Amino acid sequence: MIFVGGLPFSTNNSSWSSSSSSQGSDILVALLEHPVLVSASHSFKSVEETKVSVSSETPSPSKYVYVFQREYATVDPALVDYVGTDEATTCVGLVIRNRRNRMTSIAHMDNPEIVDIGLCQMLSLVVDHDLDAELDVYLIGGFDDASPNHASGTNISECYSDMDGCSLPLCRKLVDTLQRRQEKFHVQTLHVLGHNTKRDSQGNAYPIFHGFLVETCTGSLSPASFDGTSRCPDEIVRRIRVTSSYQDTSWNGKLLETYDTQTDRFVIAPCRWTVRKLHIVMSLQQLSDEEILRRCSTSPSAEGPDFVENLRRQWNYLIKHPDWRETFPWNQPHVFQRAADGGWRRC
Predict the structure, then answer these.
(1) To the nearest whole number, what is the mean pLDDT of the chain?
(2) pLDDT of 153 higher than 70
(3) pLDDT (tens digit, 9 = 90+) per residue, 64-113?
(4) How large is the angle between the packed helices 307-320 and 289-296, nearest 10 degrees?
(5) Which pLDDT tens digit goes with each residue over 330-344?
(6) Minimal CA–CA distance to 228: which of 20, 30, 52, 96?
(7) Residue 125: pLDDT band by 50, 70, 90 thresholds?
(8) Are the CB atoms for 221 and 44 separated by under 8 Å?
(9) For residue 164, what pLDDT is reported?
(10) Spatial contact of 140 and 120, defined as CB atoms under 8 Å apart
């Protein structure tokens, strides 16, 4: 169940017996217009974006955990100082933090189909069988990626009545699922859709923020961006695993597990790529940057400057290592443990 400002949340809508999609829309619109959450979104926008970078020359004593698309991680504040994600356009970052034990779980949600099981995965260690736990929740990401005609309403209710973008269905599913569950979810920030949208002089929409960073000890949240030194460990393989997981039925409806909460280690499970995937990759690699954006992104005009470069690096890796067993000999996972400098070391 959702709470806002310490009080149980209700849409006061008599049509709540309608479809799940309709209910989700009602909840979402009411939350986006709630004065407490509007104020929280304005406050979040006023926070300067943190740029996270790890230098080998001046190693940071802080301990970070980074989450890629479709991944999640639950961290113990006794072991981890910061946890975060970025590169979100139509995706939504979700944070759930237990007020009592400060256990914090974050996920980079990319599809409504992973919300139900994904929430169960996130809550398994955060709640620890305590349904009375008070949970702080933050949702950041997504933007008004609908066509201009659908996004031209005079108020929030009209804007979100009939959109064809990718962000809306995901946001709708998230809030509907949170409201239906038994746990107590205190929504602190809902910086999504219109609240996370800026427009250029031609009216094209872009996300204001693509990521965030959570300080596990205090629960404070700030907008954030990460560079290649901080999106680790095992960046390329984890990126490849996201796309490969779509072909692996064992991951249907689930978030990807990468981080072991109890041992503070990353365990990257083996993933397989097929000859067909390699043929597709070699074909895509021949395309121009503009065509790659058009074919491979849900929001081509809103992607970061390194989006295409990151794709090409993945494709180059696959072409260089056509047999997945070269990457995962004997079908064993990649395991990384915390190094003395706070970074990661391959076991």
Answers:
(1) 91
(2) no
(3) 999 999 999 999 999 999 999 999 999 999 999 999 999 999 999 999 99
(4) 90
(5) 999 999 999 998 999
(6) 52
(7) very high
(8) yes
(9) 53
(10) no
Q: Please provide the distance, in angstroms rounded to a whole number, between the alpha carbons at the two ends of the chain.
A: 42
Q: Are 277 and 319 in contact (CB under 8 A)?
A: no
Q: d(Cα 229, Cα 133) in Å, to the nearest integer?
A: 36
Token digits of residue 11: 């849409």
DSSP assigned state of 155 = S
Local confidence band at 294 (pLDDT 50, 70, 90 cut-offs):
very high
Q: Taking residues 163-185, what's their average pLDDT?
A: 91
Is there a contact between 322 and 278 (Cβ–Cβ < 8 Å)?
yes
Structure tokens at 27: 């909840």
Give the 3-state secondary structure of residue 111: coil
Give the span between the Cα atoms of 234 and 312, in whole angstroms.
Answer: 16
**Tokens coding 155:** 């108020």
What is the rounded distance in angstroms from the CA atom of residue 238 to the CA atom of residue 256?
A: 10
Cα 65 to Cα 342: distance, rounded to the nearest angstrom? 10
CA distance 130 to 223: 30
Kind plus residue range of the DSSP H or E element containing 313: helix 307-320
Alpha helices per DSSP H over 46-181: 115-126, 156-159, 167-180
* 3-class DSSP state of 134: strand
Can you tell me whether residue 130 is helix, strand or coil?
coil
Of 130, 164, 172, 136, whose CA–CA distance to 28 is shortest?
172
Please report which confidence band the pLDDT of residue 161 belongs to, taking 50, 70 and 90 as the band edges: very low
Q: How many CB atoms lie within 10 A of CB 183?
A: 19
Q: Assess whether the previous peptide bond of 322 is cis (omega < 30° from 0).
A: no
Separation of alpha carbons 271 and 79, rounded Å: 28
The C-alpha atoms of residue 276 and residue 331 are separated, in whole angstroms, by 20
Contacts of 295 (CB under 8 A, 6+ apart): 284, 287
In angstroms, the CA 258 to CA 266 distance is: 6
* CA separation for the pair 187, 176 (Å, rounded): 13
